[in-house]
């Protein structure tokens, strides 16, 4: 509408491919500041009144959960100041974890949108500018409120709770199984087709260091020696990515049972889709055996997301009953 102020959107940049350029050595490195990133995108100034903040400038494997609790607190302050939405740019390698963490940490209705790029700015077909513009449009949109944290790339809108990176280089790498993207952008306008049915809020103060949680994938013929070291190494919990519906070789059961008596042991599936079973198989090492021994079923969460949820719960010093109640998912 003529004369209306554009919505205010805070853009927090954290590095990644979207901000990477050549340097004196091989490959590219995240070097572009928030102002440089934002000023390179045509049309951004018309989409929103942007406040660009260089929050971190790293490859995304360097990010930690502590970075995210600090970022969540910063975003909350912006929303209290009347910002319509927030965008986070970062490396795509860890977006499925960071976006899920922000989804749990934040309770706001204003959209928080995470984006990145698969092709860096030195390459033909760099996707960063289009992804950033799309993310800002989603963050500024009233229709995208109340959906939790969103991931926007390739003109698709994904709910953080479902999204995964599925390909090392394809710009269409982000997929949401089993629900699919909850919306898309067409000619620059966001459209929401599906709304996630409930939100989970797990607030954690920004001065708390989340405890270490091990993530172990069980492979064929696994002899369990890593599992045996989990407690001695000081892990506060473990997520086991088991085979199929939640199965391990029978000889791992005593170690898992003994661990589950001392720390939370969450049972996820290494398949990456579908729920962990609860009552289908009865062989030694099956899901019924492991649940009987005290393992907590991760529901439809994969191992990476189950680990984030467990870290946040333990950072809050949640009691065992509270941890059990927070799983399964959704
Ligand atoms: N794979 C790169 C990216 O997509 C690196 C990173 O995650 O920082 O941004």
Description:
This protein is of the alpha/beta class. The protein folds into 2 domains: 8-192, L-asparaginase, N-terminal domain (Rossmann fold, 3-Layer(aba) Sandwich); 213-326, Rossmann fold. It has 10 helices and 16 strands. An 8-stranded mixed beta sheet has the order 4-1-5-6-7-8-11-12. Strands 13-14-15-16 form a 4-stranded parallel beta sheet, sandwiched between helices. A two-stranded antiparallel sheet has the order 2-3. Helix 7 links the parallel strand 14 (237-242) and strand 15. Helix 3 packs across helix 4. The longest helix has 16 residues, at 65-80. The radius of gyration is 21 Å and the shape is elongated. The protein starts with 7 loop residues before the first strand and ends with a helix. The mean pLDDT is 96. The structure holds D-aspartic acid. D-aspartic acid is lined by residues 16-17, 59-60, 91-93, 116, 118. Residues 16-17, 59-60, 91-93, 116, 118 line the site of D-aspartic acid.
Say which CATH homologous superfamily of the largest domain is assigned. Answer: L-asparaginase, N-terminal domain
Helix content: 25-40%
Gyration radius from CA atoms, angstroms: 21 Å
**CATH third-tier fold name of the largest domain:** Rossmann fold
- The ordered string of helix (H) and strand (E) elements is EEEHHEHEHEHEEEEEEEHEHEHEHH
Relative strand content: 15-25%
Number of domains: 2
Shape from CA axes? elongated
Q: Overall mean pLDDT score?
A: 96
Q: What structural class do helix, strand and pairing data support?
A: alpha/beta
Number of helical stretches of at least 4 residues:
10
CATH class of the largest domain: Alpha Beta
CATH architecture call of the largest domain: 3-Layer(aba) Sandwich
As residue ranges, the low-confidence spans are none
Let me know the number of strands. 16
Largest sheet: 8 strands, mixed
Measured distance between first and last alpha carbons: 39 Å
Unique ligands: D-aspartic acid
Strand order of the largest sheet: 4-1-5-6-7-8-11-12
